[in-house]
Amino acid sequence: MVSMTMRYRFIQLPTFYHKFSGRYAPMCHTMSSNILEQKHHVSRDSRGKILGGLRGFRGCTVWFTGLSGAGKTSISFELEAFLVSNGIPAYALDGDNVRSGLNRNLGFSKEDREENIRRVAEVARLFADSGVVALCSFVSPFEKDRELAREIHIQNDLPFYEIFVDTPIEVCEERDVKGLYKKAREGRIKGFTGIDQEYEIPSNPDIVAKTVGISILDSMMEVVNFLIENGVLPDDLASEGGVRELFSYKTANQQKDILTKLPTVAITEVDLQWAQVLAEGWASPLKGFMREDQYLQSLHFNSLVGDVLTTMPLAIVLPVTTEDKNRLTGIREICLTYEGKAIGTIRSPEFYPHRKEERIARQFGTSSPNHPYIKMILEGGDWLVGGELEVFERIRWNDGLDDLRLTPNEIRRKARDLGSDGVFAFQLRNPVHNGHALLMQDTHKTLKDKYGKKKPVLLLHPLGGWTKDDDVPLPVRIRQHLAVLDEGILDAESTILSIFPSPMMYAGPTEVQWHARARLNAGANFYIVGRDPAGLPHPDQPGTDLYDPTHGSRVLSMAPGLPGLEILPFKVAAYDKSVGRMVYFDPARKGDFEFISGTKMRGLARSGESPPDGFMGTKAWKVLVDYYLSLISTTNSIPNGQTH
Q: Is 554 exposed, middle or buried (0-12, 13-18, 19+ CB in 10 A)?
């Protein structure tokens, strides 16, 4: 084995001081006198204003070097996904990928290796100059070649950061799925770095990244924090890619003290659900109930506008009465209470008119007072109050389901603990039938086969806030989902079942964008949007839908402000009578298919009948039958035909 010794090389070229690296760097070789550099008409600052979700020029090159199998590409690809998901344009250049295209005419001789690195450095320089963070993962064994890559960037006044991925060769060999080390040791590959080709350890890398006993995510975050320290990335990306929570965790005595000192406002159960949404970070970057400028942006742009364009199509607001507004105007802090208990405070409250008709018409596309959520808005206060929210403790509902109410940061940690390299989210407010399961199973396979994911994880995420009266209650849906997992219809080992605390507004394509935004905050990379996912029957026109069933997915596929979230197409599944199971609908033989609507499903369950074999798991179906039979039993037990 060739020992890996540190070498120092001195390139005898004129030098100059580079502001990004803080080093004196050698000048590159001069170009031919017949070539004249053409100056761009667009400045880097101008590019930075329009490129990516986070405004500002961030172009640079991050160069990962190390032995084959060290983990360079794993960290680079993880970093690429992290940056893109946070609105920062990035592109990962990998050795194998580049050698299959741009550098396919190069071998592995010393001269070809040098040319390989020179070409890659020039390409990376162009990426960086355009404002993209270029991520290069190359063995690049020679210090002279890496210095040349740095010089190319320094000459163009661009940041260049060298990351040495320091993994012992024996670990690299254990990870070698391609068997390259084995072939090199057998003499079937010549000039293999670390075996019969020397690797020159970087003499002065910007970071030495370890990959033994540390996760890829943690290695990646080390690079993120370095880029933050060097001004490439904004400070708010330092929290492991999580979201900011609004909890202050006051003790019971502290809560009582605040309750006696501050003026109070009593909130409703739905208001409390929105407070939970805000406090747990689902609506990040909101730091509280919307102030008027945020409310107007949401209402008119479907987004929050700032350094980052963030999809936020629903007005997350707190209505109050005129009496409360008059009583609290000028107060610096108010305490929110629910059923007499202090929940949290709003600091520097801002009161503004609740223009209900405008809000309703813009958000719902209808002003019908028979719409269930519109009815609540019309019955609410005539003023809105916004401001920074502080919640004293985790909101618990004590219904036996609190352990399933994971916050966005908890879901991220859970996915990491499962070894996930991709999370796909599926929201539903109805029971899971085998058509849903088929779509989720197919998505899992697609992420592995098409996207190269090794361990995709499903976020099965039923909506757990307020829903209309005739929807299946949350406890029943959770029992049904658990039965689906218990029967093995969905793989429990690669599924996170969690409750999404948001109320349901039934606002159609507008609300669909909110559902996607929230899942993005929970770390989802892919989102399955179904048919009419936030719709309902028209409240005034029986037999028609309020929203076009296809518009939710179409709008979401075009929505701005969702960087890093890929929308996966929904395929319509129906019961195929010819094979006795749920399959994707084939219009060419539509006579073989039966569509079992929610209404028909509820009718079968109420009558105690079974659906066709293969429509839903046996245990899962029994949960629904038991629920609907309990309703009949309860109704029959009420004297004189009274209802609840």
A: middle
